[in-house]
Amino acid sequence: MIPELERLDGAIAQLKATHKADEPGFCLALVHEGQVLRQVHHGMAHLEWQQPIAGDTRFYLASESKPWVAALVMRAVAAGRLRLGDDVRPWLPALKSYEQAIQLGHLLRHSSGIADYLFLWHAQLGRHEHDIVTQAQALELIALADDVQFKPGTRHEYSNSNYVLLAELLKAVEGAELAELLHRHCFEPWGMADSSVESQPGRVMARRARSYVRDEGDKALPDAWLDAPVALASWGDGGIWSTLDDLIRAEPFWQAQAGSEPSLLTQCCAQDEHFAPADTAYRLGLEVVAHGEEQLVFHGGGYAAFSSLMLRNPRRGLSLIVLSNAEGFETDLSTWATRLWAPAAELT
């Protein structure tokens, strides 16, 4: 018996008691060396039609898209089409006015100093939270920021702009949009038929979950929910919709070695202090942290009321995938690391 499985079952029981079966919910899977140990679906993907969450329900991954972009970048690096030390400004018109050199490794590690376009978008007067921001608008905001906020490489500051720019860099180098590149190199060969990058958030999509927030404004209807749409038509920092089944199928490919080449997971976890301070947990598209005696690799995402987590323990050969469409559902690293392993004093 794998001890993490018993602990996970206890957490699942608590979650089912907390989240009603006829409300927005979650799905998750625990995978050990390619074998699914536990797979659970609970709650509704669509409240209006009472459609239950299933393995083929499509969720918005939000920032969990970033490791996929990083994987394509590292593929181009391995092929010699890019180098981590390349100054990316000549490739990217949005950075034309930026004076300081910004290297590829700075974008990957969130140490570029480029302002977050989402912060700039929401800071504009007259913007509503459901106004849709496009890729072109994101790039325009990055260009208008005019220069970095600090010298690249001197500190880590998470910015969605970095991965929007990485998607544009891949387009310039590889000659195709991110959606096509992921379909060609990941989704199609890995059997991920229900995964895609969506540039039109309103497009009809089979088996798509909606995300929901509580309607706090109507005290007469304490169990009322509001639809929380994804108001993003940008990609690179997000954009991927996928299913639990597809992410399970993908996991062996993330961890497989191709000849003498290290796995995608190993490549994206590489530590290179040329591009960020030595204590920076965010590597090349994934974060690496210590939890007690365990070293954990993860990335999460959240937008509207969608949230996601991909958590791996390489030493134990374990991968946990969590997807939710319910406001406030816990997909943070600390919560799930504690649920699966002995509580640690702190994550480092």
UniProtKB/TrEMBL annotation:
Residues 20-337 form the Beta-lactamase-related domain. InterPro entries: AmpC-like, Beta-lactam-related, Beta-lactam/transpept-like. It comes from the Bacteria. PANTHER family: BETA-LACTAMASE-RELATED DOMAIN-CONTAINING PROTEIN, D-ALANYL-D-ALANINE-CARBOXYPEPTIDASE/ENDOPEPTIDASE AMPH. This is CubicO group peptidase (Beta-lactamase class C family). It comes from Roseateles oligotrophus.
